[in-house]
Amino acid sequence: MNVTVTEFKTYFDRAFNYAPITDPDNKEYIRDKDIEDAFAQANLNFNESLWDNEDDKKLAFMFLTAHYLCMDMQMSEAGINSQGQFQMNSKSVGNVSASYTIPEMYQNDPILNYFSQTQFGCKYLSMLIPRAIGRIAVVRGTTTDE
What we know:
5% strand, 2 strands, 47% helix, mainly alpha
């Protein structure tokens, strides 16, 4: 999918803290290289044929890229202590606890669970699932006697 770093930054102008132009390699910010790495990862899991037009395709790809970018940043912050985990449906600290229900479809599927770990991934899934479930193509044809 052909999306540029500039297009990504323009669309997500409020979502990420991008490296300043005067210090583009500052690792305290999202660098162009981080976005390009996320593009490469998103390309591995993006099926262009599911989208009806270029605008929809580009929008979905950017949300998928944003998800990978978030996950990469979380992983890089943890470094060698990075651990894979599924979503939790309850948390508690001291006397305070919170619980919520994770839909079984997401809870039991490692891929859907992974994408549901960021709001960008959830939005991507909301665009993808209606296009991916139950899609069929009808081809006109006839049968012949042999």
